[in-house]
Structure formats: C-alpha cells, structure tokens
Amino acid sequence: MKEYLVFKRNLEAYFRKTVLPSGLKVLTEEIKNFPTVSLGFWINVGSRDETPEEAGLTHFIEHMLFKGTFRRSAQEIAKEMDRLGGYSNAFTSREQTCFHAKVLPEDLPRILDLFTDLLLNSRFAEEDIEREKQVILQEIKMVEDSPEELVHELFGTYIWGGDPLGTPILGGWETVSTFTREKILSYFDRFYGPPNLYLVASGAAKHEYLCDLAEKFIKRLKRYNLPKRRPPRPQKGKKAYFRELEQVHLVLGVPTPGATSESRYAALYLNTLLGGNMSSRLFQEIREKRGLAYAVYSFLSLYQDTGLLAVYVAVEPERLEETFRIIFQEIASLCAGEFRRGEQEAAFDHLKSALLLSSDSLESRIARIARNEILFERYISFEETLEQLTSLSTQEIASFAEEVFSQKPALVTLGPVKEEELLFFDDFFGD
Q: What average pLDDT does this structure show over 338-363?
C-alpha cells in the first residue's frame, strides 16, 4: 500500500488581538496542529523617521540591541539564541524595525524573556558603540563597491529630493561616525515603545498564554511618540554619476500611491507585467530576445503614504539608447492597454502562487500580520487579497499605468556615461 503526504493549503488559522495595560499590542495567529511558533517585536520606526544628522541611527540601534544588556553579554545573547535551536533575525527598513525568531512552543518563555531584555535593558555601552561603528562603515563600503546596490541608493536620494525616505538605511560616513551614546538614547527614548510597539506570533501560538508571558516580562512601558511622516516631493529628470565601469547601471522610476491605496493591487499587476519575473516584457525583450543585458527587472516599493515603481538594468554604454527605447515602448504599450493574449492571467497566476507559497512560511505570516496592523489596523486574509486581485480588469491596470507614467520619470545612471549623453531621455519622456 502506498502512502501519500498531503499538504493542506487552507490552514485553520485563528487571529486574535489584545492591547495590554502597558500599551503593547499582542497579535497572534494560532494555526491548528502546527509544531513551531514564530514571533517577533515590530517597532514602527525606520530610516525615514531620522533627521539628516541621525541618518543611519535606526539601523545602528538594531545592531546595538544585540551587543549586550544589563543582564546578558553579547556572547550570552548569541549562545542563548543558539541553544534555542531555531531561526532568528533582525532588520531595519524605511518604516519599521523588527527582531524575530522561530522556536519550539515550549521555548516561548525563554525567547520572550530574551527579546524583552534586548528591548528594555540594552546597555548601549560606549566601547560597543565605537566597535559597531567600524562594522557599519565596512557595510557602507560594501555598498559603494557594488554598482548595482549603489545606483539604487543614488536613485532613492535623487527621486525623493533629499527627503529622509531616500536616505540610505545604513546612513553615511559623515553621520555614523558621529553617533554617541547620548544621541542613541535620545532617539531610542522617542520611539521604541507603545503605540509603536507590536508583538506578533504565528503557528503554535496560544493567545492568552502569550499575553500572560508578555505581561510578566513587560510590567510597564512609558508612552512614546508616533513618527511624524510627511509625503516627500518627488523629483523628475535625469542625473548621471560618472564612473569608469564596464556597464552603465540605470534606474528609471516614477512615484505611485502608497500601501494603503486601493490602487496597490493594480501596481502589483503592473510591476509583474513590466519586469517582475522571467516571463515579463522587459526580461523577454531585453535579455531573452536581444541579449542586451544579464540583469533587468522592475520593482515596486510601497510605503505608508507613497510608493515607487522602477526599472533597473545594466548594459554596455553603446547599447544604452536601444535598451531605453525598449523600456519606453513597453511602458507606452501597457499604458495604452495593449495587453498580449493571456498576459493578465499569467500575471495573476504568478501573484497568486507567490502569495500562497509565502503562507507556508511563518516568518512571512508574522511580517504580513504586523504590516497590515500598522497600515490598516486589521487582519487581512490571503483570501481577501486574492479576491481583490481577481476582480481587477485589464482596463483598470492600463488606467493605473497611464496615471503613474503621465508624470515624467526620474532617471539615474552610474557608469561611463555623462549627463549630456542622456538627451534621448527627454525625447522619450518629455515634460
């Protein structure tokens, strides 16, 4: 007799939310019969909340949280993480900071004790700060040595016109080198607690049990400030950064409505059709049919109040205008609603698969829960997202494309090309 292992896609998941007396928001998604649990703290503060003098400070604090508390040394923190045997990580984005882990259910008290210790009792010792400065400065050098990464940083700075949204998350040499304990504590005391603090768990997560643990480890928290974010004023036009390289690296993009806009579903479609996968228009036309580039793709970044749809490609200087013409033609075709046979259906299948495959990852699930709570203050199911994607018409996608590309894009190049050699940009994208 043969036996088959069946993967059940529609997991029985139960979502609950509680605001504790401390102000901490606890959000759980209990999945029936799941053997592990992922949980993390999300702090609604990111690099866009920094002043120019503080650029890179959010990312710096994320690193410093693991460098020792008044109860544990950095080595003891690392050993305890390893003893739990699970997966742990941390990140800083433009709008949020997070540290999270995947553990066995019986280890929830230990991981929550550790995480609350990092959040409440970090030492921010002077010697650790000076040592970590050198680590971050080396990280910045790595970006500067990578043209593909650097052109994205240069593009962000250019299109957002100097707004903190476009400042590199790592900061720069001139700011990181000035960080002091006083500056770190001042920034930390502005943001790192309620109402900016969320504890999120998915998997074998019993809601009442997690709330009891959180109340045990976090007795009280003072109230912190909400980030004051203003929509940036995007720039259009072109900017060339000359560097002796074999290729020209370029990013071309336009601002879009933000993550809370209903048009976000059309933006997902447009990005997928334009350059979001291997069957997309730009990948097929530029790489597969003509062999002009190895790396070519589009990407979509959605923030609280604004967004960005952009194209990246790296080509030889003599093929730059030809490549640019193809990008322009494909954008114009999508704006005109000239969809190819089965194109939207293929894009939907790609988006659907990506969404449902991500549901197998607890790390993806807690990130989704946290983001939806921060942006919408509610739980959004996978089914609801699929319904929104299904209901979108070809005309709505084309109308969105026409709307966002009715404005002149921003173009940034990095490589052996000067600004006067980019006159074709104005021929394709006039005012």
A: 94
